[in-house]
Amino acid sequence: xxxxxxxxxxxxxxxxxxxxxxxxxxxxxxxxxxxxxxxxxxxxxxxxxxxxxxxxxxxxxxxxxxxxxxxxxxxxxxxxxxxxxxxxxxxxxxxxxxxxxxxxxxxxxxxxxxxxxxxxxxxxxxxxxxxxxxxxxxxxxxxxxxxxxxxxxxxxxxxxxxxxxxxxxxxxxxxxxxxxxxxxxxxxxxxxxxxxxxxxxxxxxxxxxxxxxxxxxxxxxxxxxxxxxxxxxxxxxxxxxxxxxxxxxxxxxxxxxxxxxxxxxxxxxxxxxxxxxxxxx
Length: 281
Description:
About 35% of the residues lie in helices and about 20% in strands. It has helices at about 40-45, 70-80, 160-170, 170-195, 200-215, 235-240, 245-255, 275-280, and strands at about 80-85, 90, 100-105, 110-115, 120-125, 130-135, 145-150, 155-160, 230, 260-265, 265-270. The strands form three sheets. A four-stranded antiparallel sheet has the order 1-8-3-6. A hairpin with a 5-residue loop joins strand 4 (about 110-115) and strand 5.
């Protein structure tokens, strides 16, 4: 329930056609159609900003390329130019579909659907080292989904022809892609189950637990603090959990009062991961 007493629905969009007359009016939210660069701009963008000395930067540490040699990674890097997006930008929308594969190097991506009245369902949270995109040949369908950058992100963009040439022709990579898509389907089924059987407070705790679990472990290049931190606003977290910002803020304050969290502007620190997991049901 929102603060005004109205139920906040957490459901799939009925139809992509319903977006033709959106309810948001003259001030569209960041995920409204038309708020994304054209695909050709992404593909034509070179890697000058990164420098030619490190063309394979986007490929390094990506799960599906973990056992390729330097020459193989350089060939893929040449075919998949890097592109950066700021937090809140849309990488993909139903209004501007494109059959390309995104390889996420840095940051997090939210894949979600929107109903005609603006209600949203997050179907996946993509973390670094994996793939997403509208690639029918991989069984990876975006349908009426949007892809939004939760952070400043870096992705590599690969065309259909190059996916055939470099990925599907390599049995090692093809097998890992199959594993990724299977895991993503299981995650979607879990999200749908949560939307039906869990309360709003449980969904928020589940989302926070998922985000902290997905964070890379601390190391020499990524020093970690004592407690995991999540860089999200209350509005962003509400969208992930399928509720209103007001309700999300109330739940977060309750959790903070119980000592599970510490709240700051645009940042949530998890103080007690075990109790938060219990709160997630």
